[in-house]
Design goal:
The chain is α/β, with parallel strands linked by helices. Helix content is about 30%, strand content about 30%. It folds into two domains: about 45 residues, no CATH class; about 120 residues, Rossmann fold.
């Protein structure tokens, strides 16, 4: 929620955004990025719930012809599992790139998502190395083979937690966005 309240003896107002923990006759307790904030009820000017913001990465990938995610370094947590499952359920082809570690494969199996396409060693390369454009060309060819059809580079929405990888994918012709978890 967002709470607009007076500060500095009523000289100015400020907003506190966070989760409402408690409300009494005397005060509100809100936990936000700065920790717990106690606000006197007499200082409250306005308060309202804040709607959840959509997860930008999810919205980006839902507009894809093909969703390609490099999940090396990204834990396969609830929101990521849900995203992958919903993309597949919506009929969007999902291809995951990995450096070849078994972590992703075992996490997909645990989540019941082992049916998703995993391409090992394509584009992701070793951690710390920026892939060469040829790596994206090879990954693109592997995506086409996996799907059994031609795919225009502009159909591919690519996300990775490394900006240099996203930039390299964009230079190849894929649409790219930096991977971030939802807030």
């Amino acid at each position: 929620m967002v709470v607009r309240h007076l500060v500095e003896d009523g000289e100015r107002a400020t907003d506190t955004i966070g989760e409402l923990l408690a409300a009494t006759e005397d005060e509100l307790v809100v936990v936000g990025r700065r920790g717990e904030v106690r606000i006197r009820q007499v200082d409250v000017v306005a308060a309202k719930p804040v709607p959840d913001r959509p997860w930008r990465v999810a919205a980006f990938l839902r507009r894809a012809g093909v969703a390609v995610l490099d999940l090396d370094g990204v834990p396969l947590l609830g929101p990521v599992e849900q995203l992958l499952a919903s993309l597949a359920a919506d009929g969007i082809p999902v291809v995951l790139l990995t450096d070849g570690s078994d972590r992703l494969t075992s996490e997909l199996e645990r989540a019941g998502l082992e049916h998703l396409a995993v391409l090992q060693g394509h584009a992701s390369g070793p951690r710390g190395a920026t892939p060469e454009p040829e790596a994206y060309a090879a990954a693109h060819a592997a995506v086409e083979r996996r799907l059994g059809r031609p795919v225009a580079p502009s159909e591919v929405a690519f996300t990775d937690d490394r900006r240099d990888h996203v930039d390299a994918a964009r230079a190849f012709g894929w649409r790219g966005q930096l991977f971030t978890l939802p807030r």
